[in-house]
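Exercise 4. Each item below gives a protein and its sequence. For each, produce the structure-token representation.

Item: Hsp20 family protein (Intestinirhabdus alba).
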Amino acid sequence: MMTIRTFPLLSDSLLSDRFDRIDRLFSQLTGSAPLPATPPYNIRRLEENRYELTLSVPGWQESELQIETVGGRLTIIGKREEESNDTGWIHRGISRSDFRVSYSLPERVSVTGAALCNGLLTVALFHEVPEEEKPRRIAINGNRALEHKPDEAA
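Answer:
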């Protein structure tokens, strides 16, 4: 799970932060660098109501990635398929770990599409704001005074 602090529309659980702190602690004890448990990501605002979430997933195929939304949560799962030619490697520095990333979607945010291109998985998000919640400009008329008319029923 990931915590997103830079985007006000997405939030996540506190477990991610605890696992990150444990990973950093073990890394300090062993002297090795902590391994990221999930792919790095970017969130970008494209227009007033459109956003895109981009995950770095080099080497992953579309058939190995699954995106789903259930109950206000966006979940992205990466599960590697078995490779028939898994021998001959001298060094494997590209992460091959399966992952699961989950984000809380606020009310009225929906996923409108996804694309995988050059190792980047882009998920399109749309925030629908009902007309009654959109800002309205109220005209100020300086020429006329407002009159209070008592209700006839009173």
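Check: The first strand starts at residue 41 and ends at 45.
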